[in-house]
Amino acid sequence: MKYIVATARAPFSHDRVEGKDVVRQNVGGVASSLRRLMRDREGTWVCWGDGTSDTNYQEEAVEGYRISRVILSSNEKRGFYDDFSNGTLWPLFHYFREKIKTEDRAFEPYVTVNRKFAERISRYADKDTVIWVHDYQLSLVPGMIRKMLPDSFIVMTWHIPWVAGEFFSILPQAKHILESLTSSNMITFHTDIFVRNFLETQEQILGSAGSIRNKVLAIPLGIDDKYYGAWNLSETRRKSYPKRKTIFSIDRLDYTKGLKNRVLAVEYMLSRHSDLKGKFNYVMLVTPSRTTVSDYIAMKRELEMNIGRVNGRFGDLEWTPIVYMYRKVSDNILKNHYRFSDIAFITPLIDGLNLVAKEFAAASEDGILILSKFAGASADLRSAILVNPYDIKEMAESLYGALSMSPEERRSRLADMKAVVRRKNTSWWLSRIEKEISKRWPGGTNKSKPNYN
Ligand code: ADQ
Questions:
Q1: Model pTM greater than 0.85?
Q2: Is the CB–ligand 1 distance for residue 11 below 6 Å?
Q3: Residue 61, class by beta-carbon neighbours within 10 Å (0-12 exposed, 13-18 middle, 19+ buried)?
Q4: Residue 158 C-alpha to ligand 1 middle, in angstroms?
Q5: Contact 440, 215 (CB under 8 A)
Q6: CB 224 less than 6 A from any atom of ligand 1
Q7: Do domains 2-222+426-444 and 229-423 have the same CATH topology?
Q8: With CB atoms 3.0 to 4.6 Å apart as the test, which of 12, 402, 414, 417 could cross-link to 361 if both were Cys?
Q9: Longest CA span, the chain
């Protein structure tokens, strides 16, 4: 089987830095899982060339596959990415009704860019190729391809939540998007809830869901457990890690991540338990994201104001309760935090999956995971402490309980989670997808099965 993978985000980009082209690798679980697939299979990865010198690298051979970059003008970027993908679809699919922008003007560039992707894909497709499209930025691509190449085999993987049908209907272009998605041969989500919501949406908007029921599947993305579980990092790092108990989180700066509620939970806990003063640090790592979108600028200001208040209220010369860092960090630093933190505090208001929770479970030495029950990953990580991220008091109490949890309970919860992330890892995810493709498309399978280890 050969693949054409299509994602908005590129695995690698090229930026012009001090007169030289520098390669930037995209971090994140989706990119690394798909790179694994592409290294094992020949094929093409169609993506957005978002680097400042990507126009010079529209087609490039890397790691045994081809990258084909779609170049966008600044107007196309604004309409497709900032406005429609992130200003309309992102809040829609995370239940943020008041943030959904529904002006029609952004839809046009979204259609144009989706068409550019579809045309590019059709250039490489042949009868042995699986076309695997990813996520909400490219929702119209399956429908466009279906028209250009009626016999093609199209898989759509949706990485973010799928909302209830009634909520999805807010979108003026709802029917258009749904028709495109259902023209795929297979659609995968991360959880059963999203599958149910999707089928119910189909029933409400397009009539009976019966005809698509067997092509919609829940196959949650796994992580590279060996990579996160490998402890070849410097042991001295342990010594330099804070002596106090450490609570850790890492998120993109986004209103779906529940950052402010987490700060409020720490404040609530400290206001009830003065004995905790000086006993822990909450290391809150926040990665810059969508920095040109106005909502995100305002959100940063509000978050920092709240952190400042808590530190001002409880901190002193010797102790700052919340150690806030707003920056990107290297993979090794991230792995160190995963490994040595006592508690990971991962409480998005809603999340398609949340790879950080799984990465922490794989890497942690003996940590505790406090996880939002509205993160898709909670369906797999049942031994985490599951919380409602809107309930500040419950989060504060869970945190307090975690700070004094017995070593036996810590170990047993972590062992359960490690077993799950080991079993349902990236290889499992890729094999499951490939098995389901084979069932539906026997003519397209070649007999050799790669080992994704
Ligand atoms: P994503 O943003 O692609 O979201 P997410 O699950 O939020 O992925 O995980 C973030 C990833 O980025 C992790 O793999 C993490 O290690 C990495 N990362 C974050 N900050 C970093 C930093 N500062 N330095 C290094 N690495 C960093 C979408 C959906 C999610 C879904 C994923 C996968 O919104 O719900 O889990 O796709 O399907």
A1: yes
A2: no
A3: exposed
A4: 14
A5: yes
A6: no
A7: yes
A8: 417
A9: 69
Q: Which atom of ligand 1 is nearest to the CA of 377?
A: 36
Q: Which tokens go with 264?
A: 């409020």
CA distance 120 to 5: 11
Ligand 1 atom with the shortest distance to the CA of 157: 38
Res 105: pLDDT:
85
Amino acid at 305: M
- Indicate if the alpha-carbon torsion angle 55, 56, 61, 62 is positive or negative: negative
* Residue type, position 164, single letter: A
Look at residues 364, 148, 345 and name the one whose alpha carbon lies nearest to residue 264: 345
pLDDT of residue 447: 43
d(CA 377, CA 395): 18
229-423: CATH, from 2.60.40.640, 3.40.220.10, 3.40.50.2000, 3.60.20.10: 3.40.50.2000
Q: Running DSSP on this structure, what letter comes out for residue 288? A: -
pLDDT in the model for residue 444: 66
The answer to whether residues 353 and 377 touch, using CB atoms and an 8 Å cutoff, is: yes
For β-strands 65-70 and 129-134, DSSP reports them as unpaired
Distance CA 210, CA 214 (A): 8
d(CA 265, CA 397) in angstroms, rounded, equals 8
Stretches in the chain below the pLDDT threshold 70: 231-242, 443-453
Q: Are 362 and 418 in contact (CB under 8 A)?
A: yes
- CA atoms of 70 and 58, how far apart (whole Å): 7
Name the residue type at position 347.
T
**Nearby residues of 61 by Cβ (< 8 Å), 6 or more positions away:** 67
| 3-state helix vs strand vs coil in the chain, percent to 5 | 50, 20, 30
- 27-31, long-range: CB within 8 Å, 24+ apart, which pairs? 27/331, 28/355, 29/221, 29/223, 29/355, 29/358, 29/359, 29/426, 30/134, 30/159, 30/221, 31/7
Residue 27, ligand 1, Cβ within 6 A:
yes
| Rounded Cα–Cα distance for residues 309 and 108 (Å) | 43
Residue ranges covered by each domain of the chain: 2-222+426-444, 229-423
Report domain 2-222+426-444's class. alpha beta
